[in-house]
């Protein structure tokens, strides 16, 4: 699925969700994640938790131990969504490269 701009006729801020400095169209993001509102709410915690756990060899950071079970489950679901988005982006990039190579046989 190529991620591209879809205008909904509402203001630009409401059309996009920020993920690590990148903007994703809300309507297309909704096709990839189960709950866009949860994703948007937990994305920062999910990115931080994943980074800190990778850096510590898998140990749960102290700050996460104070989260409610509900929030922890939401953060884990958001980490899964981020992995799915990374996969979709990698597949799209591979398709773009193939299309580019087909257009330029010298490449």
Keywords:
single chain; 107 residues; mainly alpha; 4 helices; 2 strands; 7% strand; disordered N terminus
- State the end-to-end distance: 25 Å
- Rg of Cα set: 17 Å
Query: So how many helices?
Result: 4
Supply the helix-strand structural class.
mainly alpha
Task: Give a description of the structure.
This protein is mostly helical and 107 residues long. 62% of the residues lie in helices and 7% in strands. It is built from 4 helices and 2 strands, in the order αββααα. The protein has helices at 12-15, 26-32, 36-55, 69-103; strands spanning 16-19, 22-25. A hairpin with a 2-residue loop joins β1 (16-19) and β2. α3 (36-55) packs across α4. The radius of gyration is 17 Å and the shape is globular. Residues 1-12 have low confidence and may be disordered.
SSE order and pairing:
Blueprint: H1 12-15, E1 16-19, E2 22-25, H2 26-32, H3 36-55, H4 69-103
Antiparallel strand pairs: 1-2
Quick structural summary:
This protein is mostly helical and 107 residues long.
């Amino acid at each position: 699925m190529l991620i591209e701009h879809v205008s909904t006729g509402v203001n630009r801020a409401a059309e996009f969700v920020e993920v690590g400095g990148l903007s994703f169209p809300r309507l297309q993001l909704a096709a990839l994640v189960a709950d866009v509102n949860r994703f948007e709410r937990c994305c920062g915690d999910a990115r931080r938790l994943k980074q800190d756990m990778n850096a510590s060899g898998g140990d749960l950071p102290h700050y996460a131990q104070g989260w409610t079970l509900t929030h922890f489950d939401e953060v884990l679901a958001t980490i899964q969504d981020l992995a799915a988005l990374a996969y979709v982006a990698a597949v799209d990039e591979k398709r773009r490269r193939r299309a580019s190579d087909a257009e330029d046989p010298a490449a």
